[in-house]
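Sequence, please.
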């Protein structure tokens, strides 16, 4: 009888242990389910062929590529021209590119494709087909910055293509105008007369302040009909015109004026960092306030709790998205 009681007691303890093991196992499984890996998939780059002008032996194109999350592997973005018998390619950068492919065969179908590698092999971002043909007309071949990019006024070399063997046009002109950040079209368009043999034009005194430059290549026939041969808009290099100055300093505090760039966009973020011997002491996040709300072109930023007779350094940093490439 005593043995039976001992046996039943051992069985009861065993059952309790089994229950505890089972409960702990289920608890562990529950925890493992809760701890999961979160994978953030970057936004895919976007490419758009905004212009394709084909002639007998050459094609002119403009492409816009934005890569907001830097998904494209460096050096893999390119334009590929191909047909059934040949293939050529050229490297591209993000943003807006104007370029051409030459030495093409007349009356032939081709395809232009914009390709890039995001880590899984080349992927087609955009493509279009066209047929080469002999026709009268003209195109804006390229625009090249030829002055230092830090100059107040810029110079561009504009490459042109004119094909008018029978002199159907009595005059060909290049119109150009500046689009300022607050505008969508030029207020004034200047005009340059182009000779049929001209392939390059220099545009000077272009303001270096995040402006667009609109080009229109047009021709006047002998009956005075005006024909637009090509249009193109490009932008000067993007940069921030942001600064700050000390406005007040005493033994334990200082203040500075912050001047934001009104054209940098609403996503721009600024920090003014106070350092002592390369060590960050204080940081001020600066919220850009619209000009109409402050009635001033500056904001005052203050730092307090400083140590008297101590050397400090102020640094201004900016984080922004380039509106031309959408790269941060």
């Amino acid at each position: 009888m005593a043995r039976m009681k001992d046996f039943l007691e051992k069985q009861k303890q065993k059952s309790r242990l089994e229950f505890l093991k089972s409960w702990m196992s289920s608890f562990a499984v529950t925890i493992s389910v809760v701890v999961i890996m979160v994978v953030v998939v970057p936004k895919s780059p976007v490419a758009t062929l905004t212009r394709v002008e084909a002639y007998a032996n050459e094609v002119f194109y403009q492409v816009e590529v934005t890569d907001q999350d830097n998904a494209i592997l460096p050096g893999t973005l390119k334009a590929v021209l191909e047909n059934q018998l040949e293939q050529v390619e050229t490297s591209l950068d993000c943003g807006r590119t104007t370029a051409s492919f030459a030495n093409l065969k007349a009356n032939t179908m081709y395809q232009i494709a914009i390709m890039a590698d995001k880590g899984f092999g080349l992927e087609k971002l955009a493509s279009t087909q066209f047929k080469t043909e002999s026709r009268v007309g003209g195109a804006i071949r390229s625009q090249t910055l030829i002055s230092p990019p830090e100059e107040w006024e810029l110079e561009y070399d504009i490459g042109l293509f004119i094909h008018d063997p029978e002199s159907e046009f009595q005059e060909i002109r290049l119109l150009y105008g500046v689009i300022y950040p607050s505008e969508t079209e030029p207020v004034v368009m200047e005009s340059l007369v182009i000779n049929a043999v001209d392939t390059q034009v220099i545009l000077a005194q272009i303001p270096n302040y995040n402006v667009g430059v609109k080009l229109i290549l047009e021709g006047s026939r002998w009956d005075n009909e005006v024909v637009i041969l090509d249009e193109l808009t490009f932008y000067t290099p993007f940069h921030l015109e942001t600064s700050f100055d000390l406005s007040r300093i005493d033994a334990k505090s200082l203040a500075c004026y912050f001047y934001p760039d009104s054209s940098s966009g609403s996503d721009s973020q600024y920090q003014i960092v106070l350092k002592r011997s390369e060590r960050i002491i204080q940081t001020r996040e600066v919220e850009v306030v619209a000009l109409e709300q402050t009635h001033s072109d500056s904001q005052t930023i203050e730092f307090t709790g400083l140590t008297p007779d101590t050397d400090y350094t102020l640094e201004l940093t900016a984080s922004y998205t380039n509106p031309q490439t959408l790269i941060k």
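The CA atoms of residues 278 and 313 lie 8 Å apart.
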